[in-house]
Amino acid sequence: MNMLTDAAIENAMDKTPAHEAVKMQGSKVRVFYGEKQALFDVDLDIRENQVTALIGPSGCGKSTFLRCLNRMNDTIDICRVTGDITLDGEDIYDPRIDVVELRARVGMVFQKPNPFPKSIYENVAYGPRIHGLANAKSDMDAVVERSLQKAGLWSEVKDRLHEPGTGLSGGQQQRLCIARAIAVSPEVILMDEPCSALDPIATARVEELIDELRENYTIVIVTHSMQQAARVSQRTAMFHLGNLVEEGPTDKMFTNPEDKRTQDYITGRFG
Ligand SMILES: Nc1ncnc2c1ncn2[C@@H]1O[C@H](COP(=O)(O)OP(=O)(O)OP(=O)(O)O)[C@@H](O)[C@H]1O
User: Hey, where are the domains in the chain?
Assistant: First the structure.
């Protein structure tokens, strides 16, 4: 069921880039929900302008780790994070960090498309407005157009910008959410199973988009689909029971993993 096609592996192998600057770094990251520990001393580098896929069986801590990267876990009362996480070398858990600003730099796209109950235009304009990034109407129009262009949605919505975002198809809504994330010029985009609610055609469109976006952004994606990890990512990190089992170039992880748990997972023996 999780077997990879040769084409998917070849595709991953073609895309391993030479440049390896570290954008975000997690060291000894532990996460607790009340008494229960969900992550154990995770050390993981997120490389700039690459797509890093987080994989592993359900409940292994992928989403928990993803949420650490923009402090979304702060919104969960019982959640406690220890260890260090940096963005461009700066500690994102430093009390002096403005979390709203951090989340503009490290944006997030969720599993289920969640446009605001507003127009397509307003969905994209909301972030730049609250961050004061575009004040004049013409500037805002330009930001909205550019963001929708980058999300590959402009041609489909340019004549209906003032219609509700919730009236779009699921795949279009997810690209609208990506446009909304892009509109505040993030450096990193976190995606938590962004295609799980989409049909295969909409999934393919979002996967193509992810590949285009990595030119300008660093992307971390949680996925249950091994094929998707192989198609879109350059690096893959395998989690199991709250531990990072191994991390490496996606082609190596799928053809020659070091850990038996990775081997078992990618060949569909568990998970
Ligand atoms: N808000 C929460 N409160 C309490 N426990 C939580 C919470 N969120 C996650 N957990 C627990 O932390 C562990 C890791 O969960 P997490 O959602 O990060 O795993 P995951 O690998 O993303 O799973 P899935 O693939 O099913 O989404 C699980 O045992 C889960 O039950």
Answer: 6-266
